[in-house]
């Protein structure tokens, strides 16, 4: 999945935000074992939400659509069954970091810079930048970025566990491909279940995880087969 708006440093507009949910649905229903997320070009992974796209919105539209729609898309990405590898092939700022936080593994190229500059514009990190990022990276680190304006180099981000690996400029996709091959060689079912349990431990999606586990057990039971057989027989007799 590639963010293709290099002329705007891959900043997200409303149409791109709206596309996340259907794109994730396609991935979810596919045979893919892993998703690699990156940005086009070599300057920016994602510069966040396009200021021109949201600054003209009224407060109600901003809250109802820009924030809520963004949450829906980012939640869909974070809750994919398949592991997600983000390749930060450039700057990762604001909504870009919120997007990267949805991934299970982050590879940063050496020239990337990472931060949450929203409060300098008088706005907050609204796509779970104070929630999911705090759960995954720790609240104090998010305070330092969002309240005190700290921006980190790729090497600093690695030391702070914002990213999992740093590679040379231009080498991110190669590294991601090797990592994806490792994932693809493992059990897809066990990987999916492990990801769901880790998400639940983080408070990401406890209700869905419980329902999915219970549903998987029920779907494999002899009780279900007997119940379906009885239902079909009853329907057949009713048809007669």
Write the layout of secondary structure elements.
Elements: E1 2-3, H1 14-28, E2 35-39, E3 44-46, H2 51-54, H3 59-78, E4 84-88, E5 91-93, H4 95-100, E6 105-109, E7 113-115, H5 132-137, H6 139-146, E8 152-153, H7 154-159, E9 165-167, H8 172-184, H9 188-201, H10 206-219, H11 222-239
Parallel strand pairs: 1-2, 2-4, 3-5, 4-6, 5-7, 6-9
Antiparallel strand pairs: 7-8
Helix pairs in contact: 1-3, 9-10
Order of helices and strands: EHEEHHEEHEEHHEHEHHHH
**Structural class computed from helices and strand pairing:** alpha/beta
Helix run count: 11
Mean of residue pLDDT? Answer: 88
First-residue to last-residue Cα separation: 52 Å
Kindly provide the radius of gyration, computed on alpha-carbon positions and rounded to a whole number of angstroms: 21 Å
Report the sheet with the most strands, covering strand number, pairing sense and barrel closure. Answer: 5 strands, parallel
What is the total tally of β strands?
A: 9
- Which ranges are low-confidence, i.e. pLDDT below 50, for 5 or more consecutive residues? none
Tertiary shape:
globular
Q: Strand percentage, roughly?
A: 5-15%
User: How do the strands line up in the largest sheet?
Assistant: 1-2-4-6-9
Fraction in helix = 40-55%
């Amino acid at each position: 999945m590639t963010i293709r708006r290099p002329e705007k440093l891959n900043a997200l507009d409303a149409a791109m935000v709206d596309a996340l949910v259907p794109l994730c649905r396609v991935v979810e229903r596919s045979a893919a074992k892993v998703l690699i997320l990156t940005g086009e070009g070599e300057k920016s992974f994602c510069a966040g939400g396009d200021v021109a796209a949201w600054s003209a919105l009224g407060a109600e539209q901003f809250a109802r659509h820009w924030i809520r729609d963004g949450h829906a898309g980012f939640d869909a990405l974070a809750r994919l069954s398949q592991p997600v590898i983000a390749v930060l092939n450039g700057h990762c700022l604001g909504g870009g970091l919120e997007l990267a936080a949805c991934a299970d593994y982050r590879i940063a190229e050496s020239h990337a810079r990472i931060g949450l500059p929203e409060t300098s514009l008088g706005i907050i990190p609204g796509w779970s930048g104070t929630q999911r990022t705090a759960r995954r990276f720790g609240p104090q680190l998010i305070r330092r970025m969002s309240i005190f304006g700290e921006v980190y180099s790729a090497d600093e981000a690695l030391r702070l566990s914002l990213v999992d690996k740093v590679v040379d400029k231009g080498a991110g996709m190669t590294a991601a491909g090797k990592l994806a091959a490792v994932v693809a060689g493992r059990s897809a079912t066990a990987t999916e279940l492990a990801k769901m349990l880790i998400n639940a431990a983080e408070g990401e999606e406890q209700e869905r995880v419980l329902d999915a586990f219970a549903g998987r057990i029920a779907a494999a039971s002899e009780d279900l087969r007997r119940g379906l057989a009885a239902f079909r027989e009853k329907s057949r007799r009713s048809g007669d």
